Each structure stands twice: as structure tokens, then as C-alpha cells.
Amino acid sequence: MKKVDINKGEALYEGKAKIVYATDDPSLVIQHFKDSATAFNAEKVGTISGKGEANAMISRHLFEMLETKGIPTQYVGFQPPTDLITRKLDMLPVEVVVRNVAAGSLSKRIGYPEGKPLKSTLVEFYLKDDDLGDPLLTIDHIRELDLITDSQVEALKKLGLQINDVLLKFFLECGLRLIDYKLEFGVADGQIYLGDEISPDTCRLWDVGTGEKLDKDRFRQDLGGVEEAYREVLKRIESN
Amino acid sequence: MKKVDINKGEALYEGKAKIVYATDDPSLVIQHFKDSATAFNAEKVGTISGKGEANAMISRHLFEMLETKGIPTQYVGFQPPTDLITRKLDMLPVEVVVRNVAAGSLSKRIGYPEGKPLKSTLVEFYLKDDDLGDPLLTIDHIRELDLITDSQVEALKKLGLQINDVLLKFFLECGLRLIDYKLEFGVADGQIYLGDEISPDTCRLWDVGTGEKLDKDRFRQDLGGVEEAYREVLKRIESN
Predict the structure, then answer these.
(1) I need a surface site. Which of A20, A141, A178, B197 has the fewest CB within 10 A?
(2) Complex ipTM > 0.90
(3) Which residue of A has its CA nearest to B108?
(4) A108 touches chain B (CB under 8 A)
(5) Do B145 and A110 touch (CB under 8 A)?
(6) Which 123-142 residues of chain B touch chain A by CB within 8 A?
(7) Confidence bin at B240 (pLDDT 50/70/90)
(8) pLDDT tens digit string along B220-229?
(9) What is this structure's pTM?
(10) Residue in B119, B139, B145 nearest the CB of A144
């Protein structure tokens, strides 16, 4: 486990689940993971006790693992219990959603029942814009809005599929089916890095045996056992 | 004006704005244009007096004109006042939306104010599925659903842009700005034909001088003067 001693500066940005702080080093920021939870574009708000700690630990573990597989990530180090030290990125203004199995907005969009496996892994782009409800974009919308270049689109698709190969296999070893998840990317010194987090906030993870949901859908759908689900994912990842 | 004498057989299909009838000739169907109007996926229902006649005449005129520009259409002949004789097609299960200026669902999606010109003409694909609300699709969704082939996607994009070149110029000569419109295509004997209709039901058309809306948005938005708008579009097209 890589730790870095660095001083937390002013808060640069507060999001729904994290606060980003400046540090002594202009190339680094600290991401503080919060317990607060939101869903449905912040229409539903709550607290999941211990989520910040679990998600920081889960993200750290997954980012370190992805680095060993050749995926450049923004992860630099860990300040227990809830803070990650990360490379400061210029975030790209799209969310990349990778899907292996139909659920959530894809089920609504194309009429697939939740749980139907997709013929092949789907990579979708969404506009990062809460006011607009993070809408789905086609490549032509991305061009019209001049959000990212065509070559960045291709690079993100390729990275999404590479990351998926690694995560699918890893989560399966943890007894978890990786249904879908959201990725965010950013640029530093001309290179694209995986940023943000990978956690039960941003993934759908179902128990391989029982199909039980072990992710934020427990909060979205009022299924109970939310804290336990996050702890269970962390436990499985750490013992793998 | 091409007319064809042919007998109307049984109703094969009744849609929101048209009824399709069989004919003596198995390769031909009759499309009867109705006065009934729906909007917002049939949540709003009404009647626009004279719409059937206006839209049949407008579609006939536009399809004949597109044929002279090399666009294959299903149009065969006209039976006044409300019926078009058309080639029977296997309709492709997507709607093709061509946009020159932001309006409607695109404005909502990407946050452009209504009336903002697009950098370049946008061609979008939507699933023809009322139950799902005709959702936007990416190329990857089209592949997942196996709706049409990649080469059909490319052919429809190309046809959409070719049709747009013709229609933009033609409507401008009629003093109308072609904001956006929906196209449907079908296949007969292995060839793709433009089908369905092109009318103020399926286009947004704004007066070049005043910006006045002369299309179904008058019905959607309760702007009044709905019948007059359809008649005005027909008058301008016929006198052009």
C-alpha cells in the first residue's frame, strides 16, 4: 500500500460524494470521500455511514490494481481513512458508462429486462451536466458540443473496454458480477488518466450466487442493508 | 401530377396520423392521411381540420420533388384528397431525425436554446417504440438490438444528408426555415426507399422573416392557428 505524506490545502470543489482539496504540490490534489449519498440527479439525498471510508479503500485498491495492468490512473497515494492523493487532472466533460448486463437507464431506454446480458460490452458517453440530467450523447452530439476530440472518444472507448476486461475478471474472483459502471477521465501533461472513483457508488455489483445487489441501488431502491453492502464489497476486494 | 386508379382494400395498420390500406396490387399500399393529431407520445390528442388533405398534398409534392433529385421514395401516385398510393415497404425500425437548428428534444438534451443553429447538420437515430417513448439510440444500441445493419446506418445517414440538402434549399425558396424533421425508411426488393411522410406533422418549419412556427408545434404548444399554418405551408409549396 502506497502512502504519501502531504498537506491538505483549501477545498477546490465539493461534489455529491467527494471534496477535492489542493495540496502543497500543484500537480496533486486530495480527494476526500464523504458518507453523503445522492441518487436520481440529487433528488434523493441521504447518508451511508462508513461509505466514505469504504469507497476510498475500494477505489484505492482498484486503481492500484488497474495500474499494474497498464491502465494510467490518477491515483498516487492513500491517507487513511477517507482520502486519496491523486494527480490533478483537467477532467473531460463526459461520463463513460460501461455495461455488461442491462440495468438502470439502459433497461428503460431499450426495453431490456434488468439482468439481461448484452451481446457485447457497451460503452456509452453522457454529458456531465446535472442541470440537464447527464443526458446520453452520440458521437455527433460530442462533436457539436466540441466536448472532446474524435481521437479522445476512440481512446476512451478503448480504455473502457480494457478496464472492463480487468474489472470483470477481478470482481468475478470476488464473487461479484460487474453489471455496469461509470468512469471519468482527465488529462495531465497531454496524457489521459482514469480519474474519479470506482466504487459501489459508481458500479452495479451483484452477488454471483444469489444475485443480491451490493451497490448504490440498495440506497436508490430502499432495499436496506446499504452500509453492509459497501462493507461486504470492501471485504471481498481486500481478501482477494 | 401522377394519379393512379387502384382499389382500396382492407386496412392493414392504423397509426396516429395515417391508415394504411391494402390494394389489388400486392406491391402497393394506400396511405390515408387523417385529421387526428397526437403529441408527446400520444399524451395529447386532438383534431386538426384539413390536416389530412394538407399533409397528403405536401408529402406528395415533396416526394415527387425528391424523386427528381435522385432520392428513391415510396411515392407512386395520388388519390385526392387524402390518399397516397405508395410502394409497400418493410419499414426499418428506426426513426431518422435530421436537425439544422436546435429545438425540441435536442434543446432539452444538450442545453442549446431553441433556434441556435448547429455547427453541422445532425442525423440522429431513435427507436420506433411508443411504449419506450421513441428513445435516442447510439450506433452501439442499434447493433445490440440488431435493428439495422451498419451499412444501412451509413446509407440512412447519407440519405438523410442528401435529402436535407434538397429540402433546405426548397423550403428556403418557400420562405421557410427547415429546423428539423423525422424521416422513416423501408426496404423493397433489397433497396432502401424514403417512406412515411414529410409534412408539418414531421418537420419544424419557421417563417424566414418572422420566425413564426408553421408546424405541429402550434398544436403541441397551444399556439392557435394550427389549421392555418398547415394550409399556409401547402400554399407556399404549391406556388413554388
Answers:
(1) A20
(2) yes
(3) A132
(4) yes
(5) yes
(6) 123-124, 127, 129, 131-132, 135-141
(7) confident
(8) 999 999 999 9
(9) 0.95
(10) B119
With contacts defined as CB-CB under 8 Å, which chain B residues touch A129? 111
The tens digit of pLDDT for each residue in A3-54 reads 567 899 999 999 999 999 999 999 999 999 999 999 998 899 999 999 999 9
In chain B, the domains with their CATH numbers are 8-87 (3.30.200.20), 90-225 (3.30.470.20)
pLDDT, mean of residues B80-92: 97
CA A239 to chain centre: 21
Of A122, A136, A145, the CB nearest to B136: A136
Q: Give percent of chain B with pLDDT exceeding 90.
A: 96
- Give the up-direction half-sphere exposure of residue A6: CA atoms within 13 A in the CB hemisphere: 25
Cα nearest neighbour of A147 on chain B = B110
SS (H, E, C) chain B: CCECCCCEEEEEEECCCEEEEEECCCCEEEEEECCEEEECCCCEEEECCCHHHHHHHHHHHHHHHHHHCCCCECEEEEECCCEEEEECCEECCEEEEEEEECCHHHHHHHCCCCCCEEEEEEEEEEECCHHHCCCEECHHHHHHHCCCCHHHHHHHHHHHHHHHHHHHHHHHHCCEEEEEEEEEEEEECCEEEEECCCCCCCEEEEECCCCCECCCHHHHCCCCCHHHHHHHHHHHHHCC
CB of A190 within 8 Å of a chain B CB? The answer is no
The answer to whether A217 and A37 are in contact (CB under 8 A) is no
Mean predicted lDDT score pLDDT of chain A? 96
Model pLDDT, residue B1: 47
Q: Are B78 and B85 in contact (CB under 8 A)?
A: yes
pLDDT higher than 80, residue A217? yes
Closest CA to A58 of A140, A176, A160, A161: A176
